[in-house]
Structures are given as C-alpha cells and as structure tokens.
Amino acid sequence: MADKDFFVDEYQQTIRALSDRIVAAQTPIRVLDAVKWDDGIRRGFFEAKGKVPPAVDRAYYQARSLGFDSSAVKAEFQAIERDIIRQLGQFSPVGQIMKRMCREYRMVVRMLEARGTQDFGLISQELYGAASDVFHAGDPTLADLGLMLSDYLNNIDGRGDLKDEPKDLTAKQAVEILQCRLNKVFGEAEGTIRVFESDGIVADAAAGADYIKVRADAMFNARDVRALEVHEGLVHVGTTLNGLNQPICTFLAKGPPSSTVTQEGLAILMEVIAFASYPSRLRKLTNRTRAIHMVEDGADFMQVYRFFQE
User: Fold this and answer.
1) Exposed e or buried b for every residue in 219-243, given b needs 16+ CB within 10 A?
2) What's the DSSP call for residue 216?
3) Which is nearest to 273 in space by CA: 240, 305, 235?
4) Cα 118 to Cα 109: distance, rounded to the nearest angstrom
5) Contact (CB, 8 A) for 213 and 267
6) CA atoms within 13 A on the CB side of 270
7) Is the full-model pTM beyond 0.90?
8) Which tens digit of pLDDT belongs to each residue from 172-227?
C-alpha cells in the first residue's frame, strides 16, 4: 500500500510534509563523528605512557569540520518550527512534539559549534541530562544510585558462576551470530536489518536506523553477543524500524536527545529482563556514570583516566 493511501485529509498531509522536512534537516548531523578523537590522539597518549594529557582543545575541534553548514541547519529548523505554528497552530499535540524536536536539534548544532569550550558541557547536560540529576525531590542522584549499585556488585564479585567468560569470538563471528538471530526476529528480507564490521567506530558496536556496526578489531564472548542482540538489535534498531513504518509522523523514526534517556534506559532494562546482562557489564555502566559525575564536579581527563585505571 502506498503512503498516500493512508492520507484521509489535508491535515495529515500537512503533518507528513512538515515531518519529512525535520527528517531531511537532521540528516547531516552526526554527533559522535563530530566529537570523537582521531586515532593519533590515542597513539600519542599511550606512547607518552599515559602521563601527558591529550592535545585536544578548541583549536583541535575548529580544525575538524562538522560536515555541514551549521548556520544553515539552525535556520532551517527555525523555519520548520515557524511553519509548524502557522500550519498546525500553537496547541496541536503533534505540532508541539515536532516543535520540541526542532528546538532540540538547534541546541545540538549549538553544542557541536561549542566543541572544546565549557558551553559544550552545559548544553550537553541540558539536552541529555546530568549525573547529578534526581527523579524526585530528596531522591538520590543518578551518580549516587550508580555508587550504590557498584557496592552491590562488589558483594557478588567473588561468585565463580558470574565471572566473565573468555572473549573468544571475533568480530566476524559476532556479526554472523547477530545477523542470524536478528533475522529470526525481523525477517530475512534483504536489507531489513544489516550487521557488519566497521573500522570507524569507538565502541564495540553501534546501532543505526536499520543496521548494527561491530568494531572490526573487537573480541566478544557469548554473553557480549547476547547483550548486543537485546540492546542494539531488539531495542535500538527495533524501535527505529517501528518509527520508519509510520506513514504520517515520519519524524518518529529519528531520536532527538530527549529520547536518549528512554532508549538507553529501556535497552538496559531489557538486558536485565532477558538475562543478557551480567555484573561486569553493569559495573562498566555504573563506572561511566561515576566518571561523568567527576567531570561535572571539575575533574579533568587525567583524573578520569586514573579512575578507570583503578
């Protein structure tokens, strides 16, 4: 059935047109590509035995292009938001969601323009939240909860059945296993979901709209692959594929910053429910939260590096 068959009135056609403009406008924005360090930074740091801070500052980022005209992208989102108000009105529920997305994407561009400055961190906290946030007044902060969970993990650290298994699966083997398992869930039609090796990512794996990239030089064990299947495949790719099937609100296929807490929270919850997580993985996540909290309190890169060493 063609998309146009779903349209029953002009209102829905207007939503679809504005929605498509949001999708098109956000296409060139690549947050992780814009902030990741090149491999030379890593090599230089370890050649200096980890004793010299990485040479990453404002000038370093200014020499790295964002790959798009930031002023033009911000202006386009401003124009889309203006047209949403004109065509859908101030109080349209779907219009309010789209306006929020436009504002968030403008803030994302501002954040990337501020790479290497304090404003980057401030805008990032406004978009994605902070480790010092609480859910309700008087509650522990996220960093406090991370520390509490770390203590619980320490209590079960000595159990032999919870020890990490050897990482004896190559990226190629992990790709084959993941592709097979996800085909059983999403179907085997060509292009439904792709799993492939990549040299251009920092994490062990990363999910896109309809694919999962696995770092080519990474090693895995069976638990790792199961966690990737649930986290990256069933949650991140699964929700994106659901959004891609929306015939009118096509913007639902894209995740603005405000969706990150839901996406990541759901992914971790699903790992636990599916018995795909394990103590050392949870410890990795809590340590990240603690490290972020350190940075928010003024820690520099070297202090965070030493925290992870210990």
Assistant:
1) ebbebbbbbbbbbbbbbbbbbbeeb
2) T
3) 235
4) 15
5) no
6) 19
7) no
8) 999 999 999 999 998 876 568 899 999 878 788 988 888 999 999 999 999 999 99
